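Sequence in, structure out. Go.
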Amino acid sequence: MLRRFTVAVLAAIAGLSVSHVALADEGLPGVWKNPKGSVHVSISNCGSGACGEVAWASAKAKADARKGGTENLVGLQLFRNFTPQKERVWKGRVFIPDLNATFTGTAELVGYDALKVRGCLLPNVLCKSQVWTRVENTTASLR
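Output:
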């Protein structure tokens, strides 16, 4: 009897763990906007990780990207090869259009609607962080 109870409890815990990990993995895909609201990035699963491309950008963001050497901002992949590192944290490469350069980056889901994005020139050197927010109604936000 005790053995069946233990097996049932372990099975329940294993099921919860798998569900929790799956929910964390499902939390990253979606459309996210930067703090200024000038760029919206659509993050989706690609390969064994995630990537994100610009779905919409303001005229100013497009002009700033052109000044940096990036001609076409919309459709450009900003988040590249993001793979899970631990629960709710992914690591990959971040392309910065204004600088026309790619850096090491992380994305940490700090809530359903908040994604802390961090990019560094070198690992943990000259880093910048921003909290991006989820865009719920993608169609309305792109008008």
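Check: Residues 1-25, 139-143 have pLDDT under 50 and may be disordered. Residues 2-141 form a domain with the Lipocalin fold (CATH 2.40.128.520).
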